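Hi C.,

You asked whether I'd gotten around to modeling the 302-residue construct. I have! Everything is below, sequence then structure, no commentary in between.
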Amino acid sequence: MSAVWIDETPSSNNALKIERETHKLEKRLCREVGRAIVDYNMIEEGDKVMVCVSGGKDSYALLDILLKLRARAPIHFDIVAVNLDQKQPGFPEEVLPAYLKALGVPFHIEEQDTYSIVKRVIPEGKTTCGLCSRLRRGILYRVADELGATKVALGHHRDDMLQTFFLNMFFAAKLKSMPPKLVSDDGKHIVIRPLAYVAEKDLVRWAQHREFPIIPCTLCGSQENLQRKQVGEMLREWERKFPGRIENMFSAMQSIVPSHLLDTRAFDFKGLKATGVADAEGDKAFDPPEFPAPSPLRIVQL
């Protein structure tokens, strides 16, 4: 007689595990967004924050997390969601109003046919993102004025910032990224990016959990050969091969050492003189660079 062991794990255990993981994800998102807001003083007492909602996972998550944080924040601020309907063919214009109404958040839908302008001006096959972005930016700043918004919140996340850093380095010869907070081009608005510390993979998971009604961008998102996509894939490949590299690179953007670069506008090399005082942070010209030792490989017996 032979016995067969059958492991019947209750499905409720899986449900509890998913619930715990989702709770941890929510806490992490709220913590990282809250940390960015505090670090860069993004939102202040009495602010009216205009959250730009495109219909993508990032802007949905931005609005979702800001609403959660507002409920527990020690200060009062208002939120208004704004969507720019660019009249793209097939754009489901009923989706966002229905979602925002159900959410109970004040919102405004701005209808402007920028799609026709972009298609008329940009030759077939060329990247439309630059012109589309400039048109969209100008319209949203005007809407912010009309709504009396004091802050304009965008849904760019940590990975967007890293991609922008490498794009600028590779193609514009600049060490420059997306700042978490800036004054707008017209000098009239403060633009904030509360998702600055948030990893895109967490936003993907959150969007799946919350079942956001995602609207694909058929104007620029369907272009397969954008440089940004190529850089994004490069970063993802690095992360697959070297886990933790993304975090290190992002931390590096927050730890700039101008004296050890080459920009004479950022550091007074011409006026540099010996002081006779030792500096623990100074250049160790003849020392090899010191990097943390790689973690030892662990062999797991299957």
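If it helps when you're writing up: The first helix runs from residue 11 to 39.

Thanks,
B.
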